[in-house]
Amino acid sequence: MAIANQFKFLSWIQLVITWTVAVSLFGFIRHYGWRENLAFNPEHLIEPRFDLAVGFILGTGFYLIERLLNRQTFQRLSFLRWAAIKSGLNLLLAMGLFAIATVLYPELNSNVSQEVSFGEFLFSKLMFLVLVYFVVISFLITLFQRMQQKLGPGILWKLLLGRYHHPREEERIFLFIDLRSSTTIAEQLGHVAFSRLIQDCFADLTESVIRHRAEIYQYVGDEVILCWKVAEGTRHNNCIAAYFHFVETLERRADHYRKTYGLQPFFKAGGHAGRTTVAEVGVLKRELAYHGDVLNTAARIQGKCNELNERLLISPALADRLQLNGAYTLHEHPPVELAGKRENLPVIGVRAVSEVSRRPLPAG
Question: Helices marked H in the chain — which ranges?
Answer without folding.
Answer: 2-31, 48-69, 72-75, 79-108, 118-122, 125-151, 155-160, 182-189, 191-204, 206-211, 230-234, 238-252, 254-261, 293-302, 305-308, 316-319, 355-358
